[in-house]
Amino acid sequence: MSGWNAHDIPDQSGRTVVVTGANSGIGYVTARELARRGARVVLACRSESRGTEAVDRVAVEVPGAEAEFAPLDLGDLDSVREFAAAYGRRYERLDLLVDNAGVMALPQGRTADGFETQFGVNHLGHFALTGLLLPALLATPGARVVSVSSFVHALANIDINDLNSERSYGRWTAYGRSKTANLLFVHELARRLAAVGSDVVAAAAHPGYAATNLMTVAPRMRGRKGSERFMEIGSRFVAQSAEAGALPTLYAATAPGVRPDSFTGPSILGLRGSPAKSRRARWTLNDRAGQRLWEESERLTGVTYDALKV
Description:
InterPro entries: NAD(P)-bd_dom_sf (IPR036291), SDR_fam (IPR002347). This protein has 10 helices and 8 strands. By secondary structure, the chain is an alpha/beta fold.
């Protein structure tokens, strides 16, 4: 995969794709480049104004692109169910689901369903979405699910007894746990897909250090000028662009031979560079942890993956 870039994306004609959080940053670039290669892309975004603006931008940058907006708030399970139901009414197949949207290092808060915000949006929302769209994925030969995690997952393992950070809360610890949850989800999803003989590929990716809105909003929301300044300096001198940061996701989503439960990130210290196999904390490959998180996620969301039960 050395030197792999957006020009290497295979033809996506005839494929239907959902990208969450596609109105800006890595999600937008992912959606745009898949549309450029011929995919029909659904930009699933919380904000209607930003989502429709993103669709308009795609239309300008990629004349003839098939792109549409659909409302999705991952912090509200009713919205997740409404999105999945609307998708099912319109489409019978789903070639690619990119679980990209996320929030980072926020002050402590709760989703509409009462979950800690980062765990609720970054993990539980995507867990529910993927489960509800599973029939369409299973009905599509060669389908893939790509979860966007982070190198920051290495900061913290999940605490299965305190998934919603009720005992204590640290904004970066909570973020790391949510990104660990993304990887454990992919690990367990890949195992369950293999167990039923499905050819759906579940893989993970991370952008390294990319200069996107996500990298600057978190410190600003916290109100810490020093943190904001640090992020600004890092984004200016260390971070790569959103275009480069999207490459690991695009590789995991489209490159031939991507293996289930793989983790793709930038090649240079996991921070920048072309897509490469990425290091991951050992706890993200723990079968028992993956199973327990899965069981708790089904209980908390009410979404069960019945087709993957053996």
